[in-house]
Amino acid sequence: MMGHIAILLPGIDSVSGAEQQALLIARQMARRQWRITVIAMSGSGGEAGASLAQEGIPFFSLQMRKAFLDPRGWKQLKAWLRLEKPDILHAHLPHATWLARWSRFLTPTRVQMDTLHTSSLGPSTRQLGYRLSRSIPTCVTAVSKSVAQAYADANLVDVDRLLVLPNAVDTDHWKPRDSKHSPLRQQLGVGDAFLWATVGRLEPVKDYPLMLQALSRLDPSVHLAIAGDGSLRNPLHRLAEHLGIAERVHFLGFLPDPLPLLQSADAFVLASLWEGLPMAILEAGACSLPIVATDVPGTANVLTHGQNGLLAVLGNLEAMTATMQRMMETAEDERQAMGARAREEIVQHYRMDLVMEQWHSLYLKLLEENTQPLRMG
Fold first, then answer.
1. 257 vs 272: CA distance, rounded Å
2. How far apart are CA 52 and CA 30, in angstroms?
3. Does 218 have pLDDT greater than 90?
4. 181 burial class (0-12, 13-18, 19+ CB within 10 angstroms)?
5. What's the mean pLDDT in 6-22?
6. Of all helices (H) and strands (E), which one includes residue 222?
7. Averaged pLDDT of the chain
8. Which of 51, 56, 61, 52 lies closest to 11, judged by CA?
């Protein structure tokens, strides 16, 4: 075995982009002969936890009920760290990050690291948490240059400990196919109509209302398929009814694998208010879909306007409508060329084997540089 890596997350009962990447790292490092344990602060693990168990990757939950303030979780993690003595404790997302960092005052840890997944700094309390603990981790990684820059500019991370390691996508899985003859198009009843696809949780950050309003201004033959679930499910259904587009908006719910949707669509759209490095963009690009997205940090790291996608001004209905219209009016061969360039970008910079080799090398380097467990304080 290469060493023992413990990956700490707030929970994996619901898997979004950050959790997806953390679990991908876990699985890929296990295949590279690292010993892996996945720890959730709360929840039972759901389908993701069961899948890890089937793959021989240990998973357990601290069953914390008051976020990172629950003392039972602290005690359980302390006991586990002292018993198992993992070489690396790698946290993802804020609450897990603070739990991992401050636990270093209780238990010596050889390498403690965490990953930043979004360019949004969050409320002042979150920023204070990062600022007060910035001297604790051995290393901090960010999923994009934009994320790293945002935290560095706000003085929330020591730049000499900060590295950029992007999200990864399995380009052997996410790949194009003939969209016009897909079973899903027949199932949705869209025929040869232009079909937009989008993937993401139904939460305010994705700004689905803007997307639906833009769709209502496009030709009545145009359809939109949405893969995702969340707190805005019912309000978005009502908005589609109010806008008179309910028959053209297909709410597919959470899809464990949205590949058939991406292989069935003519183009992809994302209206996010902010992003770190959106997995939906990487997966859509890998499927050679031309993409329309809001011009926000993270997304703009992947898309070059007019080359492998089109960028619209953030939060601007007229701009989103016009950009979607422009994509639809682009000749089909040019849209296909744009999609091909999108896949080329993903394969060149974000394919799984390339990124996972970077993680493997980083873990080895950190262990070489940190030979003994370190207790803070």
1. 21
2. 11
3. yes
4. exposed
5. 93
6. none
7. 94
8. 61
User: What is the architecture, at CATH level 2, of domain 179-349?
Assistant: 3-Layer(aba) Sandwich (3.40)
Average pLDDT over residues 266-294: 96
Q: In CATH, which of 3.40.30.120, 3.40.50.261, 3.40.50.2000, 3.40.50.10490 is domain 4-168+352-369?
A: 3.40.50.2000
Bridge partners, 60 (sequence order): 39
SS (H, E, C) 352-371: HHHHHHHHHHHHHHHHHHCC
Least confident window among 142-146, 183-187, 313-317, 346-350: 183-187
- Give the CB-side neighbour count of residue 77, counting CA atoms within 13 A: 36
Q: What's the pLDDT tens digit per position in 36-62?
A: 999 999 999 999 999 999 999 999 999
Question: E strand or H helix at 54, and its extent?
Answer: helix 46-54
Question: Treating both helix axes as pointing N-terminal to C-terminal, what angle do 317-329 and 208-216 enclose, rounded to 10 degrees?
Answer: 60
pLDDT over threshold 70, residue 373: yes
